[in-house]
Design brief:
This protein has 6 helices and 11 strands. The longest helix is centred in the middle third of the chain and has 16 residues. The chain is α/β, with parallel strands linked by helices and 223 residues long.
């Protein structure tokens, strides 16, 4: 039988602020790649700055091309180099939680290795868009996963709620985040989530995650 583990993130709103250096708001703040504020630190399975220091590289991710980031080949030495450098930096800055972005670009064994490596640094992981990944149930069920972040096109309330139930974590925090033309989608998620535990929905009106406006706080009614 599944034994629940303590999760201090339950019931708290997420301030997904990876696009700003000027954080504000209550709840859980997540900072961007080069920032050090908040509770959750953004980390990237890609070469964030595409400087070519983590080769060899793959070239089959549209997201990597869109953001001009390097898709690191997990079979090469650059994979661990990239992760070790980020995890070491985040631990030195005092973080206990990290988001691992772009897991959908890799197979499950590679994502699993990154989650386990984070745990070796005593870093707890927030799953990103697990519905787009291989073996989403195993991903969410991993004992080092403490929350889920979902963007437009990566799932809905019904699919994510069912996923956490299958993973035997029925109260795992889920945060739907959006920006740009994603407000109507986010409002739909907020309406679907009313009455379900630990689901929050936010929208950024200042570009790609420059601010965080609550459309639904976890365990509360729509504002």
């Amino acid at each position: 039988m599944f034994k629940s583990y303590e999760n201090p993130l339950e019931g708290l709103p997420l301030r997904y602020l990876i696009g700003t250096d000027s954080p504000s708001g209550d709840g859980i703040l997540e900072c961007g790649y080069d920032s050090n504020f908040g509770i959750i630190a953004y980390c990237n399975l890609f070469d964030e700055k595409n400087q070519g220091n983590y080769g060899p590289y793959l070239h089959n991710s549209d997201t990597a091309q869109q953001y001009n980031e390097g898709q690191i080949d997990p079979k090469g030495p650059g994979w661990l180099k990239n992760l070790n450098e980020q995890f070491s930096r985040r631990r030195e800055s005092g973080f206990q939680y990290v988001e691992l972005d772009n897991p959908d670009a890799y197979d499950w064994s590679s994502v699993l290795s990154a989650i386990d490596l984070a745990r070796s640094y005593q870093l707890k992981v927030i799953a990103k868009n697990p519905g787009l990944c291989q073996n989403p149930e195993s991903y969410v069920a991993h004992p080092n996963i403490y929350g889920i972040i979902v963007e437009k096109g990566a799932g809905n309330v019904h699919s994510m709620h069912n996923l956490r139930i299958k993973a035997k974590k029925p109260t795992l925090p889920i945060w739907f985040v959006s920006f740009g033309d994603g407000r109507s989608w986010a409002m739909d998620m907020a309406n679907q989530a009313v009455g379900l535990p630990n689901i929050g929905v936010t929208y950024s009106s200042q570009g790609e995650y420059g601010n965080s406006i609550d459309l639904l706080k976890p365990n509360e009614s729509i504002p």
